[in-house]
Amino acid sequence: MIHVQKITLLLKQNVGGPAVPQIEVGEHVDRGQLIGKPEGLGAYLHASVSGNVTAITETAIEIAPDAEQPKDFVPIPETDDNLEAIKLAGIVGAGGAGFPTHVKLGTPIKGGHLLINAAECEPVLNHNISRIQTDVEKIIRGIEYVKEIVQAKDVQIAVKRKHVNTVALLEEAIRGHDDISLELLKNRYPEGEERAIIRESNLKTLLKTTDLPSAANAVVSNVETIYRIAQAIEDRQPVITKDITVAGRLQGDNEITAVHKDVPVGISVGAMLDLYPEMADYGELIMGGPFTGRRTDRDAPVTKTTGGIIATIPFPQMKGEKVGLLACACGATPVRMQEMADSMGVDVVGMQWCKNAVVNEKTGTAKCINPGICPGQAEKVLNLKKMGAHTLLIGNCTDCTNTVMGIAPKLNMPVYHTTDFARRATGNRIMRHMLPENDQ
């Protein structure tokens, strides 16, 4: 286990309300001990380490870990109800907003479809694929538990076909499971968006932006969530650890993309980066993936939904450059793009949403009409040109970016993508033109 000086467990790591502390400052807690309960919609919170509670604030519980940490943990209570075990373990969606899993699975879809998201949608991140490679049998058992809970008739595991070894491993693991099949996805973003998975599955259904998967009589669940479910049911283990991809550029222009399994929830970003003291100077730290991650700092704690920590290359300095923002419902928000533009020192002269974006005026967020399938962006690029933009900063999906590159060079408009700085730091090809292998 990684030795750390402090663990910070946020009381709210999920959709719904925060957990209410069940312990007091000065109390010694054991690894796996229940330390927070929600009032209403929410998730149980457990100590990820053994140690002394040093502070309880409105937002977090802080623990000073013992020098020696046990491998064992306080198990969740025994129950004959697997859905109750999921609740008691504090499981939330590990790959998204963190919706409490016991609530998500609490409404049966009798005769419906269970879809498993193994797409590893965001570039750079690789922890879900790594978990499949080391624990595929447990994941398959977790799938069967969930299938029984929601009363689905069949299961499809959605995985990108580029992960050849993982596909072969899954094919072997599901042999004899006539109710489970694989759905091989293209290597494009955002194939892991749940409506895209439903569209690409044998359901062949494109849901409305306002629809939940239940509209297709389906449930979609992330690979790591399924693994944590199996842990809760078989091992009585609460959610006290998280799988994380740590990535960035090392000194000497070498890159690191490393998967760390089962790090304690509440460990700081800085503690994870300290594992790589040769990390080069960076432009920003991202918690999450290059597309939808948010800027973070070394003191921020890992939560039940954290998938990645990425140190990007330094931002280019383009003081005075007039830039137009082209936002995509599948990528960085306009606020996030403005944050990046400020770091580049540019003047933002206008913003346009992708033609596929349906914008919620109250929240400023958007959903894509057809995730990953682009209607063309020429009109939007021309609009930004008229607004005075000399350069574009875009956050578009693979297909949309491809269409931007069909018009921007003709207008002599250089293009930067919001993922460029994370991709360059990790040796990944930057997004511009769609290459043939993206559709393989």
Detailed description of the structure:
- The model has no long low-confidence stretch (mean pLDDT 95).
- This protein is 23% helix and 25% strand.
- It has 440 residues and is of the alpha/beta class.
- It folds into 4 domains: 7-65, OB fold (Dihydrolipoamide Acetyltransferase, E2P), CATH 2.40.50; 82-235, NADH-ubiquinone oxidoreductase 51kDa subunit (Rossmann fold, 3-Layer(aba) Sandwich), CATH 3.40.50; 241-311, Ubiquitin-like (UB roll); 322-439, Rossmann fold, CATH 3.40.50.
- Helix 3 runs parallel beside helix 4 (164-173) and helix 3 packs across helix 6.
Q: Tell me what portion of residues adopts beta-strand conformation.
A: 15-25%
- List the domain count as a whole number: 4
CATH class of the largest domain: Alpha Beta
Strand order of the largest sheet: 13-12-16-14-15
**Outline, from the CA principal axes?**
globular
How far apart the termini lie comes to 39 Å
**Helical fraction:** 10-25%
Averaged pLDDT: 95
CATH second-level architecture of the largest domain: 3-Layer(aba) Sandwich
Radius of gyration: 22 Å
CATH homologous superfamily of the largest domain - what is it?
Answer: NADH-ubiquinone oxidoreductase 51kDa subunit
The name CATH uses for the topology of the largest domain is: Rossmann fold
Low-confidence stretches: none
Question: How many H/I helices?
Answer: 11
Strand tally is 22
Keywords: 4Fe-4S, Electron transport, Iron, Iron-sulfur, Metal-binding, Repeat, Transport
Pfam family, one: Complex1_51K
GO molecular function, one term: metal ion binding
Protein name: Respiratory-chain NADH dehydrogenase 51 Kd subunit
